[in-house]
């Protein structure tokens, strides 16, 4: 069922769900960007509709709500261990179509890849998703090529005309019961989607592990500085490492944390005895790219990458992931010709 609400009405809706849910959405953090005079768009708690940024792509994804950058799993001492507390409320997350598809990738990795990850699943419970309509394609987006530009797997969708009016398509009974009290007038509403990006990618139909032998990866040995930013903004990267924090010198009390990790940074593939599987940055780039568009697809039937373009946005060396994908066809031909 669709609704047209003004700012006051939608704020009433936010207030009506605030006792059960925290609301997370892209918001502007002034002077929080990479430079002192720039802002940052990332996810945070909001209370009013005016706090939500609709006309810009978020620099970071929704991922950190379900996978905190640093997450305490449990506390320990000589005498006991205590599991860390979790959220007391549910969560309502505003996100775009590409990120809604990314959620499926996270669920596959943490819920369907062997036994469920307990710490992910307990945060994943009692969450509702609000799809933000896309009126235009943003810089570096290539969601159309990745078939993630549309989605109907939402509880609520929202569009704005940027004149104080908001258009909602509701699929959730609880939300609908609250919206009916605020605005009895309903109308047909469907979310906005983009069907054309300025950037297009083409993944070779017969892409195989042969492409690992291409010389194309060598250029990233010098171009990439292994900062890991591309992994941290990516909504589908799921790697982490463990860290024990000790409260005393005897090391018998403290906490265990799960911390984001990156396949692009030094130390990620270190093993006992001083070995390292991928020392060169080009080798790390090769691993990342092929994991997103080859390995994961062979296992799950669709690509891991959702085409949000955040990796291109954030890279300080202007390395384009989409451009790298488009080089794969030529790279595969090169390898096959050399066989």
TrEMBL record:
GO terms for molecular function: iron-sulfur cluster binding; metal ion binding. Residues 213-245, 295-324 form the 4Fe-4S ferredoxin-type domain. Keywords: Iron, Iron-sulfur, Metal-binding. Pfam families: Fer4_22. InterPro entries: 4Fe4S_Fe-S-bd, 4Fe4S_Fe_S_CS, Helical_ferredxn, Sulphite_reductase_A. This is Anaerobic sulfite reductase subunit A. It comes from Peptacetobacter hominis.
